[in-house]
# Entry
Amino acid sequence: MSTAFTDTFIRNIKDLGRYTDAATQGLNLQVKHSGGKYWTFRYLFQGKRSDLSLGTYPTISLKEARARATNARNDLNQGQRPLAHWKPVTKIKQAAESVARPVFKDFSKICIDQKCPVKPD
# Structure
Protein backbone atom coordinates (compact mmCIF):
# COMPACT_ATOMS: atom_id res chain seq x y z
CA MET A 1 0.00 0.00 0.00
CA SER A 2 1.45 3.37 -1.02
CA THR A 3 0.19 6.51 0.68
CA ALA A 4 1.71 9.74 1.94
CA PHE A 5 2.29 9.13 5.64
CA THR A 6 0.96 11.33 8.41
CA ASP A 7 1.59 10.95 12.13
CA THR A 8 -2.08 10.05 12.69
CA PHE A 9 -2.01 7.40 9.96
CA ILE A 10 1.15 5.81 11.36
CA ARG A 11 -0.14 5.84 14.94
CA ASN A 12 -3.40 4.11 13.93
CA ILE A 13 -1.96 1.36 11.69
CA LYS A 14 -2.71 -2.04 13.22
CA ASP A 15 -2.63 -4.38 10.21
CA LEU A 16 0.54 -6.39 9.61
CA GLY A 17 2.64 -5.62 6.57
CA ARG A 18 4.86 -3.17 4.79
CA TYR A 19 3.58 0.31 4.06
CA THR A 20 5.31 2.59 1.54
CA ASP A 21 5.48 6.37 1.90
CA ALA A 22 4.47 8.04 -1.36
CA ALA A 23 6.20 11.27 -0.30
CA THR A 24 9.69 9.75 0.16
CA GLN A 25 11.09 7.28 -2.34
CA GLY A 26 12.11 3.99 -0.70
CA LEU A 27 10.79 4.76 2.80
CA ASN A 28 8.75 1.91 4.30
CA LEU A 29 7.05 1.27 7.61
CA GLN A 30 7.00 -2.38 8.70
CA VAL A 31 4.30 -3.52 11.14
CA LYS A 32 5.08 -6.77 12.99
CA HIS A 33 2.89 -9.37 14.72
CA SER A 34 3.80 -7.89 18.09
CA GLY A 35 2.44 -4.52 17.00
CA GLY A 36 5.92 -3.02 16.78
CA LYS A 37 6.64 -0.67 13.92
CA TYR A 38 9.98 0.10 12.34
CA TRP A 39 11.31 2.15 9.46
CA THR A 40 13.26 0.72 6.54
CA PHE A 41 14.75 2.20 3.41
CA ARG A 42 14.49 -0.16 0.43
CA TYR A 43 16.96 0.45 -2.38
CA LEU A 44 18.68 -1.12 -5.36
CA PHE A 45 22.49 -1.02 -5.43
CA GLN A 46 24.53 -2.72 -8.16
CA GLY A 47 21.53 -4.80 -9.18
CA LYS A 48 20.82 -6.08 -5.67
CA ARG A 49 17.81 -5.01 -3.60
CA SER A 50 18.50 -4.30 0.06
CA ASP A 51 16.78 -2.84 3.10
CA LEU A 52 18.46 -0.40 5.49
CA SER A 53 16.97 -0.23 8.98
CA LEU A 54 16.25 3.36 9.99
CA GLY A 55 14.96 2.71 13.52
CA THR A 56 11.74 2.00 15.37
CA TYR A 57 8.59 4.08 15.58
CA PRO A 58 7.88 6.18 17.71
CA THR A 59 11.55 6.49 18.74
CA ILE A 60 12.26 7.72 15.22
CA SER A 61 9.60 10.18 14.11
CA LEU A 62 8.20 10.45 10.60
CA LYS A 63 10.25 13.61 10.03
CA GLU A 64 13.49 11.93 11.16
CA ALA A 65 12.76 8.77 9.12
CA ARG A 66 12.23 10.89 6.00
CA ALA A 67 15.49 12.76 6.67
CA ARG A 68 17.41 9.48 7.08
CA ALA A 69 15.86 8.04 3.90
CA THR A 70 16.80 11.21 2.02
CA ASN A 71 20.41 10.97 3.27
CA ALA A 72 20.53 7.33 2.15
CA ARG A 73 19.12 8.30 -1.27
CA ASN A 74 21.84 10.98 -1.55
CA ASP A 75 24.48 8.30 -0.90
CA LEU A 76 23.00 6.21 -3.71
CA ASN A 77 22.98 9.19 -6.06
CA GLN A 78 26.72 9.61 -5.38
CA GLY A 79 27.31 5.96 -6.29
CA GLN A 80 27.86 4.79 -2.71
CA ARG A 81 26.08 2.12 -0.71
CA PRO A 82 23.90 3.84 1.91
CA LEU A 83 25.26 3.52 5.42
CA ALA A 84 23.63 4.04 8.77
CA HIS A 85 25.64 7.17 9.63
CA TRP A 86 23.61 7.74 12.78
CA LYS A 87 24.38 4.35 14.33
CA PRO A 88 27.15 4.32 16.93
CA VAL A 89 30.07 1.97 16.38
CA THR A 90 29.52 -1.18 18.42
CA LYS A 91 31.93 -2.28 21.09
CA ILE A 92 32.64 -5.48 19.18
CA LYS A 93 33.63 -3.56 16.07
CA GLN A 94 35.81 -1.22 18.13
CA ALA A 95 37.52 -4.19 19.78
CA ALA A 96 38.11 -5.90 16.44
CA GLU A 97 39.66 -2.76 14.99
CA SER A 98 41.93 -2.24 18.01
CA VAL A 99 43.45 -5.76 17.86
CA ALA A 100 46.64 -5.77 15.80
CA ARG A 101 46.55 -8.48 13.16
CA PRO A 102 49.78 -10.30 12.38
CA VAL A 103 51.04 -10.30 8.82
CA PHE A 104 50.87 -13.62 6.98
CA LYS A 105 54.62 -14.23 7.21
CA ASP A 106 54.60 -14.00 11.02
CA PHE A 107 51.38 -15.98 11.37
CA SER A 108 52.60 -18.81 9.14
CA LYS A 109 55.87 -19.05 11.10
CA ILE A 110 53.96 -19.34 14.38
CA CYS A 111 51.67 -22.05 12.93
CA ILE A 112 54.56 -24.07 11.53
CA ASP A 113 56.49 -23.85 14.81
CA GLN A 114 53.45 -25.04 16.77
CA LYS A 115 52.67 -27.96 14.46
CA CYS A 116 56.18 -29.13 13.67
CA PRO A 117 57.08 -32.14 15.87
CA VAL A 118 60.82 -31.53 15.48
CA LYS A 119 62.19 -28.09 16.05
CA PRO A 120 64.71 -27.05 13.37
CA ASP A 121 68.16 -26.08 14.61
Observations:
- The longest strand covers residues 48-57.
- The longest helix spans residues 62-77.
